Amino acid sequence: RWERAQYYRHAVRRSAGLAARIIAVSRFTADEVCNVLGVPAGRVDVVHNGVCSAFRPAGDAAADAVRQKYGLPERFFFFTGTIEPRKNLERLVRAFRRVAEQGAPEDLVLAGRAGWKLTAARLLEAAGPMHRRVRLIGHVPDADLPALHGAARAFVWPSLFEGFGLPVLEAMACGTPVVFSQRGALPEVVGDAGLPIDPDDS
User: Fold this and answer.
1) Residue 190, Cβ neighbours under 10 Å: how many?
2) What is the structure's pLDDT at 116?
3) Helix (H) or strand (E) holding 2
4) Pick from 14, 45, 92, 172: most CB atoms within 10 A?
């Protein structure tokens, strides 16, 4: 939104200029701080995010319980994050529609708070005749996320821009296969431990 853009444009630049040191969560973010905000590289250190110890393989009983709680099928692809354009969800839904029409048995489950400029109706419209297999379950408690990851066939994260991408790391810690965007910090975070995709190509 305009007011948030103005805040970032002015307050963050001023804050970065006044800081003695800056900790960035990824090399990608560190480079952005230097290139966009003009901070000398010697004032920026990279300290990668860690993942909460609750994110670990959940086991069959927990996966079954979370499927029952949210009314989910046995097989599904999973996304969690804010529902907004930056997360590239319309393209994800269109890609899902293609694989579903080709016979893939999985549904697509999208979890997260409503953000800006993207509605559930628009996502379901993008799914076309497969709209009943796209499930928007809204915000879920943190306590349910490890089991949701564990129940998923794969975690899909096609984001257009991430300074880190913590949900990808959480999925990996749960032992869930990850399909991730080759954009922003995600290649740095995932390395060769997931399936990279072009986020511009459904």
Assistant:
1) 22
2) 87
3) helix 2-7
4) 92
So what's the pLDDT on residue 62? 97
What are the distances in angstroms from CA 63 to CA 132, 136, 147, 155, 165? 22, 18, 5, 14, 23
* Angle at CA of residue 66, ends 60 and 70, nearest 5°: 145
pLDDT given at position 162: 97
What is the number of other CB atoms lying within 10 angstroms of the CB of residue 168? 27
Q: Are 144 and 69 in contact (CB under 8 A)?
A: yes
pLDDT at residue 101, as a whole number: 97
Residues 154-179 pLDDT 10s = 999 999 999 999 999 999 999 999 99
Low-confidence ranges of the chain (pLDDT < 50): none
For residue 92, with 0-12 CB atoms within 10 Å meaning exposed, 13-18 middle and 19 or more buried, which class applies?
Answer: buried
SS3 state of residue 19: coil
Contacts (Cβ under 8 Å, ≥6 apart) of 51: 166, 169, 170, 173
For the entire predicted model, the pTM comes to 0.94
Distant-in-sequence contacts of 119-122, Cβ < 8 A, 24+ apart:
120/83, 122/90
